[in-house]
Amino acid sequence: MRIDSVIDGVLPIDKASGMTSHDVVAIARRVLGTRKIGHCGTLDPLATGLLLLTLGRGTKIQDLLMSEDKEYVGTMKLGEVTDSQDADGEVIGSLPVPQLSLEQLESAFTKYDGDFYQLPPMVSAIKKDGVALYKLARQGKTVEREPRFVHIYAHQILEARLPEIDFRVVCSKGFYVRTYAHDIGNDLGCGAHLSALRRTKSGRFDVDQAFRASELKTASREEILSKLLTLPQVSRLRGA
Known about the structure:
Elements: E1 9-15, H1 21-32, E2 37-40, E3 48-55, H2 62-66, E4 70-78, E5 80-82, E6 91-94, H3 102-110, E7 114-118, E8 127-128, E9 131-132, H4 133-138, E10 148-161, E11 164-171, H5 177-188, E12 192-202, E13 205-206, E14 211-212, H6 221-225, H7 231-237
Parallel strand pairs: 1-14, 3-12
Antiparallel strand pairs: 1-3, 2-3, 4-11, 4-12, 5-6, 7-10, 8-9, 10-11, 12-13
């Protein structure tokens, strides 16, 4: 397809596990035949769920959309620490998981409610002197990182079937859920890593209204664009 189409708006995508956010952008660019596409808030390959693609003039509000609060559901596995803080990394520590009551678990989660400073992981896209931290991590390097001011608006322990805990968290931008799992594991004395993650909401956007990334390659252009939100629709959705 010749790439010359002009499309303006926001396309909510339900990203599949194993895909990078860049993969989703590349497929959409090819199928829709338009160059100007960006995305709001990178999802790790492990993660699934809501990824907002901005098209055409929609890219002008990309920073605005990225600044909005997010909701995630995830699973953390206690007793294993990984170098990336999630299941994609190498296990670098194992500890027995004690018998933990729901009250103990709730106390560990509640500690992070509200405002606090979170230290970003080494395996991240944050740059140090122009180099992404994950590239330094691959070289076995650890550098000083600036803690980020973040906020948790709400959390919920959905199910505790030790060593795994299913949870929901509503948080500010710049929040690392895998670091959240890692830190809670440390507080519980047994370590933990994030084993599954799904972004369910971003601002007023909900994954239930998103187009499945797994169907991008086979769907028609018209089918995909049926999920496109125009800029006036986005404005009304956000209450702007």
